[in-house]
Design brief:
Length: about 230
């Protein structure tokens, strides 16, 4: 489980642990997931801890950067693609044999509604989230014959530090006060005007990884409070 220290990741760890899973959670202090070696290290550590067995991998680590395309820092673009697309690919690659050997291996990506739709000033994030949903489809097709399924969760805005950190950036690029960002920018596309709670995403993850989620492979579970209904 990557990105496990706070927000959605911490909520998923708590829920899976309460459901009886043994969870190996890692975050930025444990490995640099923008590198091949970092991803290899994470999988190796989990295999060592669980005597070579892996039943599921949850790719959750991420960050956001808000800026117009003409001003978007190229190094931020590179980091977003590395963490949000390449890291899940490497985790799947390195964990593939162990997941297949489990007989019912699951690979889950915490993606975003921005894997299905776009918002301005988020070119790096939107491109990466669209890309990782394509990866999930390929994983599902290649994993079908070896008992490995792959799925994704696409939540709207969740009450996390990542979302809170966007407020000032969104206010700057939209030219509005920070107190207006939540209502006029973040929640504007949603039919239901509220933030999701991390526990709601964790509940979806638990279902996808549990016995009732076995048929969910190759497609996202969308938790967007009506965003994509428009």
């Amino acid at each position: 489980m990557t990105g496990a220290a706070r927000g959605i990741g911490a909520a998923i760890v708590e829920r899976l642990t309460s459901d009886g899973w043994l969870v190996h959670g890692v975050d930025i202090d444990d490995a640099d997931l923008t590198t091949r070696e970092g991803n290899r290290t994470v999988v190796a550590a989990a295999l060592e801890r669980f005597d070579g067995r892996l039943d599921a991998v949850v790719a959750n680590a991420g960050f956001q950067h808000v800026a117009p395309v003409r001003d978007f820092p190229e190094e931020q673009w590179d980091k977003l693609q590395a963490l949000l697309v390449t890291s899940p690919f490497l985790l799947a690659k390195y964990a593939w044999d162990a997941l297949a050997a489990s007989g019912d291996g699951r690979f889950l990506v915490v993606a975003s509604v921005h894997g299905l739709v776009a918002s301005p000033f988020k070119s790096g994030y939107v491109a990466a989230k669209h890309g990782v949903l394509g990866l999930v489809k390929v994983l599902a097709l290649e994993g079908a014959d070896v008992g490995l399924s792959a799925s994704a969760i696409c939540p709207g805005y969740v009450r996390t530090a990542l979302v809170e950190a966007q407020i000032a950036e969104q206010a700057a690029v939209h030219g509005i006060p920070e107190e207006r960002v939540l209502e006029e920018v973040l929640l504007a596309p949603q039919a239901v005007k509220r933030l999701l709670e991390p526990s709601e995403v964790a509940g979806a993850a638990a279902w996808l990884l549990g016995p009732d989620g076995r048929a969910a492979t190759g497609s996202p579970l969308v938790l967007d409070l009506g965003w994509t209904a428009r």
